[in-house]
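Inverse folding, one chain.
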């Protein structure tokens, strides 16, 4: 979704009233001619246009001078905010297994499903371009929100916050900083990231509890370990990507802060509020980034435990199978011993018969012979 803001002593939101995000907004809904006029009207640099065309790739931030008039300090700057937002999952768990998108969850550019939390974590970006005219004090912002329109609340939340802040400042006679819009979007993005990290943490805890239950049971576990190993590797791939995006977010905040100090400074109450708010947001993003790093270590420990547990279960299963074989061998041995004993008895009987025959057969033979004679 595209929205523009203008600051000329007071703030104005230039979005067309009554137009909301369409539910099927998968692309930027603007004609090439209108986009060209937009670029010319706001002096949007080619580097920002290029970043928009590849918004799904990592990008830094840019800065350019607008006016070439000597003594003028009009400038523009842009950046892309990586966004991860969790949405309630409306699909059945079996549907994730059967769907084609489920096989793509190993790719961090796609969504990841957290089954126990019943949410899907999806990635987007928000592209912001701002220019400031030092001669007139005017500022313009152009915001491209690439969050899909079917999640209208997420798309429109920063806009509503901006509109609320403008109305509040007008009613109370408070002056807003020309940079305040940066802070609105950054705080929203920071909160979304914190919510995602909390859900990932809860999901890892659920996996740990399930693993402990499996260790305490005697059930066949091959399918369980294979499924858990796949799920953990999927989250690991996403956490690595999250770290890169949070590092990029920290760098963007630092760049905005440095640019604001160089060009404006904290000359009035609005600017001081902005400076404090930006510092607090930077602290929150850093804490979220540190938490992400902690989750990576926790996940590594769980993966190690899964491998050890699976190996331990395999050893137990093999030992049980070996015990069955040994018991069968023991049974065969006992049977063989009984057969040997019976054979020995039969042999003794045969010897007895042979001895008796040896003693009585010659006499009988002589008697028969004498009788015949």
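Residues assigned per position:
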């Amino acid at each position: 979704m595209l929205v523009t803001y203008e600051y000329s002593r007071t703030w104005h939101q230039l979005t067309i009233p009554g137009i909301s995000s369409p539910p099927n907004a998968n692309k930027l809904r603007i004609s090439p001619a209108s986009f060209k006029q937009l670029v010319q009207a706001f002096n949007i640099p080619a580097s920002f246009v290029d970043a928009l065309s590849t918004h799904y790739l990592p990008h830094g931030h840019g800065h350019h001078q607008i006016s070439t008039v000597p003594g003028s300090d009009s400038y523009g700057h842009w950046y892309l905010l990586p966004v991860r937002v969790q949405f309630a999952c409306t699909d059945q768990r079996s549907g994730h297994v059967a769907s084609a998108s489920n096989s793509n969850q190993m790719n961090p550019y796609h969504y990841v499903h957290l089954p126990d939390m019943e949410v899907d974590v999806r990635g987007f970006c928000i592209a912001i371009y701002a220019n400031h005219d030092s001669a007139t004090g005017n500022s313009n912002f152009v915001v491209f929100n690439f969050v899909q329109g079917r999640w209208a609340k997420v798309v429109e939340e920063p806009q509503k916050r901006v509109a609320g802040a403008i109305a509040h400042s007008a009613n109370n006679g408070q002056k807003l900083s020309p940079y305040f819009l940066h802070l609105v979007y950054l705080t929203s993005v920071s909160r979304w990231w914190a919510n995602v990290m909390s859900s990932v943490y809860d999901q890892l805890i659920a996996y740990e509890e399930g693993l402990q239950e499996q260790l305490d049971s005697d059930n066949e576990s091959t399918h369980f370990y294979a499924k858990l190993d796949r799920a953990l590797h999927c989250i690991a791939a996403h956490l690595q990507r999250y770290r890169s995006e949070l590092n990029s977010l920290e760098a963007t905040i630092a760049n905005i802060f440095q640019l604001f100090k160089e060009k404006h400074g904290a000359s009035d109450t609005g600017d001081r509020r902005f400076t404090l708010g930006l510092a607090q947001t930077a602290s929150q993003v850093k804490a979220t980034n540190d938490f992400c790093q902690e989750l990576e270590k926790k996940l590594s420990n769980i993966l190690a435990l899964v491998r050890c547990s699976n190996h331990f279960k395999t050893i137990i299963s093999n030992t049980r199978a070996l015990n069955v074989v040994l018991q069968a061998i023991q049974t065969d041995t006992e049977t063989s011993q009984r057969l040997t004993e019976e054979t020995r008895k039969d042999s003794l009987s045969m010897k007895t018969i042979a001895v008796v025959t040896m003693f009585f057969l010659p006499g009988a033979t002589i008697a028969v012979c004498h009788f015949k004679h």
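Residues 2-318 form one domain. The CA atoms of residues 319 and 325 lie 10 Å apart.
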